[in-house]
Amino acid sequence: MRTVVLFKMQVDEKNCRQKGSAPIRQIHRFFRNGFMASDIAEPLFSWDGAPLAEDAQKRMIDLRFEAAGVRIAGGVAGWIERDALIEGPCIAHLRAFSETVVLSSESPLSEVIERLGCSPRIFVTVFGAVGGIITRADLQKAPVRMWLFGLVTLVEENFSRLLKEHFPGDEWHQSLIQASLEGARRLHQERMRRNEHLELVDCLQFSDKGNILFQNEEIRLKLGFESRRRAKEVVHNLERLRNNLAHSQDIVGENLEIIVKLASQMDRVLDASSD
Q: What is the rounded distance in angstroms from the CA atom of residue 209 to the CA atom of residue 206?
């Protein structure tokens, strides 16, 4: 999927902006609706409310479940948390499904991620009844990684476009330390040798692009950053997320905050890529 999306972005970018044509709309549709809660949800393990809490807790430890459903009259009426089970029957520890932790199986991935920013788990409804669960660990799955990598790529491409618009020619060179400039030149020469026709600015590191842009207050404010410090911090986190995605590393432990921020600002990223 990443190859298809990047190919469309690189080949059709100019025509899309001139015509407002279908490829850009298709890319936007992919990010808004391409993946849903059902793509990463797991079935919710459940039992009736009669078993003792202690027995249920032992079983959940064996299965490595932190939460499970509780059935009443054949339907899942609520849930229990493993660490909260002390004594008595499971039903004594029943928790209701609040609106903040329940989503439809057709909910877009962006909404799933936003909810997981506030809760360690959400429950998923199928045909109107809770039947699935999504935890933060599920953000490691391939659909999420593909989706996130695509969004980060759009952010970086927008940085490149802004650099070319606001720093024509070699104007941006003076805003970059010599070591970073030399690194970009070496990469540019290598990619040209491989018959990849790119501009030098396209060979800058992600963080270097951001740091150049954020020296311009107008651009920084347009991108939603009130201070250079905060802007550099966000770009650093985005670059780290991108690297972790590219190398199949953990993306939740250190990156949850930036993942949630990226999901919450998805529409802004998509709109910027269409300017």
A: 5
